Amino acid sequence: MGYDDVLPHLGSFGPYQRRIFFLVCLPAISCAFHKLAGVFLLAKPDHRCLMPFEADNATFLTDTDFPMNMSYPWDALNNKWSTCERLNTNFTQQYFDSGRPANASVACEHWLYDDRKYVDSTVTEWDMVCTKSWLTATSDSLFMVGVLLGSIIFGHMSDVWGRKPIFFASLVIQVVFGVLAGIAPEYVTYTISRIVVGATTSGVFLVAYVLAMEMVGPSWRLFAGTIMMMFFSLGYMLTAAFAYLFPGWRALQIALTLPGILFLCYWWFIPESARWLLSKRRKSEAIGVIQKAAAVNKITVPNEVLDNLIEPEKKEDMDKPTPSVLDLFRYPNLRKKSLLIFFDWFVNSGTYYGLSWNTNNLGGNDLLNFVISGAVEIPAYCFLLLTLNRWGRKSILCGCMLMAGTMLLLTIAVPDSHGWLIVVLAMLGKLAITASYGTIYIFSAEQFPTVIRNVGLGAASMVARVGGILAPYVNLLGDTWKPFPLIIFGAMAFAGGLLSLFLPETLNRTLPDTIADGERFGKEKETDNLGNSEEMVELKHGTNGDVKTSEEA
């Protein structure tokens, strides 16, 4: 008798589970702080070259009596005076009086920054503009590398040593390196610190997510998972409030980090996962957690249930090979579905983070754009709660990706004078991609056969991180041509929506268990002789282990 057998007696989502669930949702807010902080930490304000004849204490808004056309070359692609070059001349009074601009230009050596939006940022402190603008994209990209590494390292550690100790270890590391990033004297220290913080967001958020999923009943997992993502969206929006209150990047980084200290008091309130304790044969501790929950829920769990409580051991058949990601590519139908799913994960992750980090390049009020970008996620998640089990996964995934692609591609037709319309289209695209990103989690788990589900989802998650790692470099293309990032994200999302039409619907269908089931699942014609072929005999007997689903991992 396992933990799932206790839930009918304990309650799938009773007062105790709701209390603990609320507590583990709050750290999602601080994880959002760190994941989205780069928008303000790496903010690039308007800037121009410091001219040779200007004083060292000149400011961006210093009144100048020199004509711009005699000082800067014209940037035709972005329709403005160049911010990276100045004309190459001696700038004498005779030169200005001539009215003939120099034909040659030279790269700027120093810059003046507009401090009306941002008092300072890492960009202004370390001059990460023009030929060094790639450093900002690299910083965000390496942060996502940290997220990827953290999901692997902390995920494994939580399986070995428990959810609770790894959750708190991640919190401590996050606070230490978050503060270190705020006092970093130069770019390398700052970036390394942010990589570690990125890794800990996986340790904090994913472990908290697993804790929540492991203590509620199966019928409540969709609801609980969606609500937890809404807390992430709340943290998304609150990041803008911190940026408003702390306009300096160092103060902002430290202010976003310190709330993590409050969660350390959870040690006395958050229990270890009873499901994990049972899996480690620690029955007495698991019973203690269950009895405490039962007391709060005002329910008595029968003694015979507790006496027989034990997580069944997994029996490994040494004659059967361990499932690997290669099994997804050995057979044509599984290969097709796997490639489509991986592409969808890549596109959804890249577009989601790309749009989230690009709000200060849309024009208008940066803080307002950022808040709206976070706010549109709430209706997206509500939409999923209402429709995912009614309309089907495939129709929602395809429809939302096509909508996101359409909205983003339409921005190319909007004139610069209608900047508000670009913001509206980008936010509609963000809403749609948030909904599709939420759908792909469930849809993917139902596409992969049970015996290889964890392997498939792990591979898909890694592909998704690659999308997030590349997204900052796509946004960097906006320095060359402002609409570029939205067009690229839009084209990818639209292509993903069309390609997803080739995936089978999974709602209300028996899900595949074996590799053979997975190969047959979704084929237009499932002929009898297919099951008798030599290939299918190999499939039936080649990989049939017992692998936990993603919700149990």
TrEMBL record:
| Any GO molecular function | transmembrane transporter activity
GO CC annotation terms, alphabetical: membrane
Keywords (A to Z) from UniProt: Membrane, Transmembrane, Transmembrane helix
Q: Where is the composition biased (Basic and acidic residues)?
A: 537-553
Cross-referenced Pfam families: Sugar_tr
TM segment ranges: 20-43, 134-154, 166-185, 191-211, 223-245, 251-270, 367-388, 395-414, 420-443, 455-474, 486-503
Where is this chain's protein located in or outside the cell?
A: Membrane
Q: Where is this region: Disordered?
A: 520-553
What protein name does the entry list?
Putative synaptic vesicle transporter svop
Q: How does it sit in the membrane?
A: Multi-pass membrane protein
Which SUPFAM superfamilies would you find in this protein's record?
MFS general substrate transporter
User: Which ranges carry the Major facilitator superfamily (MFS) profile domain?
Assistant: 51-508
Q: Which residues form a coiled coil?
A: none
Q: Which organism is it from?
A: Phlebotomus kandelakii
**Top-level taxon:** Eukaryota
User: InterPro entries, per this entry?
Assistant: MFS_dom, MFS_sugar_transport-like, MFS_trans_sf
